[in-house]
Amino acid sequence: MPFDYQLLMKIAILSRGPQLYSTQSLVRAGMERHHEMHIVDHARCTLVVGRGRPQIFYGDYALPRFDAVIPRIGASVTGLGATVISQFEMMDAFSAVRPEALLQSRDKLRCLQKLARCGIEVPRTVAAVPGQDIMPLVNSLGGLPIVIKMLESTHGVGVILAESFHTAESVIEAFQRKGERLIIQEFIGEARGADIRALVVAGEVVASMERRAKAGEFRSNLHRGASAEAVELSPDEEVLVKKAVKLMGLDVAGVDFLRSRRGPLIMEVNASPGLEGIEGITGADVAGRIIEFVEQRVRERRHFQSNTRK
Ligand SMILES: Nc1ncnc2c1ncn2[C@@H]1O[C@H](COP(=O)(O)OP(=O)(O)OP(=O)(O)O)[C@@H](O)[C@H]1O
Ligand SMILES: [Mg+2]
Fold first, then answer.
1. How many angstroms does the Cα of residue 156 sit away from the middle of ligand 1?
2. DSSP letter string over 136-186?
3. Which of 35, 146, 201, 223 could cross-link 30 (Cys pair, CB 3.0–4.6 Å)?
4. Is residue 231 part of a domain?
5. What pTM was computed for the model?
6. Is residue 78 in contact with ligand 1, taking CB distance under 6 Å?
7. Which pLDDT tens digit goes with each residue over 222-260?
8. Quick check: is 280 in a domain?
9. What's 220's domain CATH number?
10. Closest ligand 1 atom, CA of 221?
11. Which numbered atom of ligand 1 lies nearest the CA of 157?
12. Which ligand is nearest to the CA of 109?
């Protein structure tokens, strides 16, 4: 296909780690399509609003207008990241992730609430409040074992399987003393330490893999030594995954689900999914698909703007 030079874009990847695989993969995919790619650290942006045009300063330097931004916002700076995305939008850039959608998906409890409210099956979950009796909580989940999760956990670090009531009680108490917000879930034992990660871009599943925990471990995080391989989703799973992403208001997302006796149960919809594992394991060019999605949206906007000017 001949290259359309009218489509050339100035794109900023919002990332705190220029060397990270996902950042580099997006930069490479953009450059392969001849776009001007920049990496902007959202934590170094100074946002200026009011009296005149909105601006973003990067040190002493006022950032130029970008056609699009692709946010890669880490969990520890979600709020800040959302305000930076809004500022880029005020400066007329298209963002691959809307700030409200980022905020909503980052809060695991709100994410599960939203999905459940819209009829999507999730593991039975309770939000634990400090000082509560643990026994009724455990009973409301159908008994032991249970999975205790710190709401701010990533890479499986704050995710614990409690097989006895005594363990459940002491773990919950210890975390709550430290001020951690917790959710507690029924344990989906029949998943046998495996979960599925599906990557969705622009309403299509572009890659999916099954992650399998190493022996003696129930968490299937690659960071916890799990192995992974490409997997096909069933038609029902594909419909479900796409629906979950749409409900969360996202166009680019990673969806994690467990295969349970009562069908797929969604654990999380992630607005900044890592690309390294999934691209390496499935061979899919996820970054390329993200750039193509951004191209499509920018093209639509330009078309719309030139028509409204006529
Ligand atoms: N209710 C559950 N039943 C069985 N296994 C579970 C359950 N919840 C989590 N797991 C296993 O533990 C792993 C880690 O849990 P989870 O994905 O919720 O936390 P995390 O990986 O720390 O968070 P994030 O995905 O945001 O990085 C999952 O990938 C899954 O293999
Ligand atoms: Mg996870």
1. 6
2. HHHHHTTSS-EEEEETT--TTTTEEEE-SHHHHHHHHHHHHHTT--EEEEE
3. 35
4. yes
5. 0.95
6. no
7. 999 999 999 999 999 999 999 999 999 999 999 999 999
8. no
9. 3.30.470.20
10. 29
11. 22
12. 1
